[in-house]
Amino acid sequence: MTDISAESAAQSAKPTIFFDGVSSRRRQVTLTLADALEIVEAGVTPVRWAYDDIRRADSPAGVLRLASTSAPPLARLEIRDVALAADVTARCPRLDEHQTSRRGVAKIVGWSMAAAVSIVCVVLFGVPLAADRLAPLVPKPIERRIGDASEVQVKTIFGRNACSDSAGKAAFTKLVNRLRDAAGLDDDNMTAGVLPSAIPNAFALPGGKVYVLNALIDKAENPDELAGILAHELGHLKHHDNMRGLIYNGGTSFLIGLLFGDVTGSSAVIFASRSVVEASYSREAETAADTFAIDIMHALGRSPKPAAELMFRITGKEGGGLTSILASHPLTEDRLARMTKEDRPASGPPLLTDTEWQALKGICGSGKV
Amino acid sequence: MNDMQWAPIGSEPLPPPLPPTRVDFTGDRSTFRKMVTKGAMLELVTFGFYRFWLVTDIRRHLWSNTAIDGDAAEYTGRAKELLIGFLVALAILVPIYLAYFLVGIEFERWQGFASTPLFISFYAFGQFAIYRARRYRLTRTVWRGVRFWMDGSGWAYSFRAMLWGLLVFLTLGLALPWREASLERYKMRHTHFGDLQGDFEGDGWTFFKRGWWLWLLTPIAVVIFPLAPFFYAEFKAREWRWWLDGIRIGGVSLSSQLPHNAFYGLYWKVVGWWMLLSVVFGLYLGGATWLANAVGMAPTGPDAIARSIPLLVVMVIGYLAVVLAMNVVMRVYLQHDIWVKVLETLQVHDIGAAADVQGRGDLASALGEGFADGLDVAGF
Prior knowledge:
The complex is a heterodimer.
Chain A: H1 2-11, E1 16-19, E2 27-33, E3 37-40, E4 47-49, E5 54-57, E6 64-68, E7 76-79, H2 82-91, H3 102-134, H4 140-158, H5 166-183, E8 191-195, E9 202-205, E10 209-213, H6 214-219, H7 223-238, H8 241-260, H9 266-299, H10 305-315, H11 332-341, H12 354-361
Parallel strand pairs in A: 8-10
Antiparallel strand pairs in A: 1-2, 1-7, 2-3, 3-4, 5-6, 6-7, 9-10
Helix pairs in contact in A: 3-8, 5-7, 5-12, 7-9, 7-10, 8-9, 10-11
Chain B: E1 21-25, H1 29-45, H2 51-64, E2 66-68, E3 71-72, E4 74-75, H3 79-110, H4 119-139, E5 141-143, E6 146-150, H5 154-170, H6 176-189, E7 191-193, E8 196-200, H7 204-223, H8 228-246, E9 247-249, E10 252-256, H9 264-294, H10 304-307, H11 309-344, E11 346-349, H12 367-374
Antiparallel strand pairs in B: 1-2, 1-11, 2-3, 4-5, 5-6, 6-7, 7-8, 8-9, 9-10, 10-11
Helix pairs in contact in B: 1-2, 1-11, 2-3, 3-12, 4-5, 4-12, 5-6, 6-7, 7-8, 8-9, 9-11
């Protein structure tokens, strides 16, 4: 067997090259296929590689490039003769042991799927749970700091000063206080104000801040309409929705980013899936805040329906189109339908007198923004 | 120690300079195309995790088919290293993101939107990642049984990149050639092949002279946007040629004859594929919507949100398919074909100087690649 191999080595027409992994010198060698592979260079002690240690290294087509686990890591033997290459290959049982096989790829796919499934489960179940549990535990000072930061941003956008007509302010405070007492919120750290803006909206910030934009008051036709919306915002405060949203959005965007990583074009997928998931979470929070508002209005003996009517006047009918899955709020017509179902005749006193209501409408001065 | 025949310079008359050596690429394009197509599909079913394996396979293919002076290079990096590097980078980046968030809040409390400059710190981190990722790739590049390696500091590089970046910003991009020259000098002077040290001899002025008119024409490309691929291809070709001309490793030098219009075709092919895929995607979307309406699944009415889900799923699948097809197109044209075109026109001078180099240098960790991946600044 040895003789035959030695013969084939001698016959090889194309040179066999050896790099010893210590220097870049190109050594022309002959091979002896004994009980180990002997690499023979003229005038130098032969190098012996055990067949079991020989592994295939990357090479261009037509060259068999070998490495050995017991040699210096970069030592390479390059066989260009096809017959000799076949001879050597036949003797090395573990030549391709280190390559990624079909099973290796299946393993990667399997584990990736498992990782993806667990990430999806965490996004769908774990993160909402964590957000619900953690949000009430966030210390008040931290929440207030985050609130202060967003307040500065809000005021950069909507102007520095809250509206401060004194009679209007008194009426606003009265309305807010009645709602707050009915909601059972602590009064020590809640602030509410009206900001001059042409956009009809209201929002709650972390740390117990509620802001109403003046245009909403302009569009409201009676105190109940405004009260329902304020009650909804108080619901957000009661449920710590800002902190929950912050934890939830931070957690999901991190996990979804982790899932898709660096595939070109993935940012759109990340953005889309984040938007859908976050919108759905936000819609849940809004529905809960609506429930809260309904309860408060009932407790005060007023109907929640006017608030929904006000919203409907502002947004109009929203339904239709694919964008509804990205809506952060339930569709206004659905909210109107729900609040209409909860409509009850007034059993309590009006929340504000006519004079107070007129004063509130003038809280930002002449009503022009 | 080195008893090489070209050592005794000066005592004997210099031999006439040897003709320059060519760099051959022996890879098969269809093999590469099949590899990236299969890889893109695996990326889809693994939610992108396969990227570590695919990027390793791409490098292994390109490296091992690139033969300098008859000997092919080899890429010894492995996907597992990249995966681990990515996980370690995540472990480091997560607290940094959190700290960024908290510091940002303090800034915002003080002044609205004051935290925007903090974003710059991520740019610095990205530059650091670019340096360290290059170091990883280089230490996995082996030729003739000797590896390339790199020293120098990622943060020193990042600092330089930041200062130059500021200057480029202030000069509306005119300082770009000098930025590239300076950064490349830093990178190449800290690059080694065994005991040979690298250097970069390109200077900003040369690059400026080759490309300044492109800088002037850029506003035109904004108005007449079909010109943009021409300008970009022109710029890239000039940049490649200038860069290759400047590279030195020990006594070995490179020179490139890359024509200025070498990349026109490639970029236009990418644009063409992109348009074709967009049209196909548009038709697919139109068809899906029509079908949804036909079978009465139109997203209208009171439960519009729930009813729109099937159509959305169909759209997302279509989108992913288009993105993956585009990935294949970009890898084939912008990685493989550019690689081949650049090598075709590359010449290596005095390769004899690398005939007996002593192996040196240690492997660098894949952490840099992990950061680059995590920060989305990944290069090749």
